[in-house]
Amino acid sequence: DGGITQSPKYLFRKEGQNVTLSCEQNLNHDAMYWYRQDPGQGLRLIYYSQIVNDFQKGDIAEGYSVSREKKESFPLTVTSAQKNPTAFYLCASSPVGQISGGYTFGSGTRLTVV
Amino acid sequence: SQKIEQNSEALNIQEGKTATLTCNYTNYSPAYLQWYRQDPGRGPVFLLLIRENEKEKRKERLKVTFDTTLKQSLFHITASQPADSATYLCALDIYGQNFVFGPGTRLSVLP
């Protein structure tokens, strides 16, 4: 089955620690995205990538970093510079130039600072 | 400033009735608008896309309208069922590169 896999499902971070969220897709999609979701707010775009080895900042990129070394993978690192990282993180993918099918989302990672 | 609003945070309706959810936007000129369904603790699932030159789109019990003059989209679920209970998100395209999402409306269909 084609899909997009996020891991882990739950993640706990200590103050001052960097953590990396995994996102893998086998849909052969060129574009991948990271969103953050907080209660009562819409999804906010952190980073997106439309091609391997290239990515763009979204609206709330500060305190986050990404890499796109392979088409299938788009990991997100939440750095210690992110002051309020507790949230639900969603990864998505789509074909470039073909939006009629919408985005395919993973099942999310819930990050909590302890 | 740019803003997307969805009519209410929560909407309760009786089973069998038509649910109508609203998505209003300001200072955007989207060429496309999407609707997604999100269940608790899960990622959103794509439902429908409507283009700016389409007035209406249907899929089974779902109907979406798009009025670029009013800057509004309406999302209807006819003959609603308790299984339709979820949060529904609208999303607008930004220059065809990515989408910006509204805050969502939590729909509860009561038996």
Q: What would you note in describing this structure?
A:
The complex is a heterodimer of chains A (114) and B (111). Chain A has 114 residues and is an all-beta fold. Chain A has strands at 4-7, 10-13, 19-25, 31-37, 44-51, 54-57, 64-66, 76-78, 87-94, 104-105, 109-113. In chain A, the strands form two sheets. In chain A, strands 2, 4, 5, 6, 9, 10 and 11 form a seven-stranded mixed sheet that branches. Chain A is globular and about 40 Å long. The N and C termini of chain A lie far apart (36 Å). The model of chain A has no long low-confidence stretch (mean pLDDT 92). Chain B is mostly beta strands and 111 residues long. Chain B has no helices and eleven strands. Chain B has strands spanning 3-6, 10-14, 19-26, 32-38, 45-51, 56-59, 62-67, 72-77, 86-94, 98-101, 105-110. In chain B, strands 2, 4, 5, 9, 10 and 11 form a six-stranded mixed sheet that branches. In chain B, strands 1-3-8-7-6 form a five-stranded antiparallel sheet, with no helix packed on it. Chain B starts with a strand and ends with a strand.
Shape of chain A: globular
Regarding quaternary structure, how should these chains be classified?
Answer: heterodimer
Supply Rg of chain A.
13 Å
- The total of helices of chain B stands at 0
Mean pLDDT metric of chain B: 92
Roughly how many Å apart are the termini of chain A? 36 Å
The SS-based structural class of chain B is mainly beta
Classification by helices and strands of chain A = mainly beta
**How would a crystallographer describe the biggest sheet of chain B?**
6 strands, mixed
Measured by DSSP, the beta-strand proportion of chain B falls in over 45%
Report the strand count of chain B. 11
Output the helix-strand order of chain A: EEEEEEEEEEE
Number of helices of chain A: 0
Q: Pick out the low-confidence regions of chain B.
A: none
Average of per-residue pLDDT values of chain A:
92
Q: SSE string of chain B, helix = H, strand = E?
A: EEEEEEEEEEE
Rg result of chain B: 13 Å
Main beta sheet of chain A: 7 strands, mixed
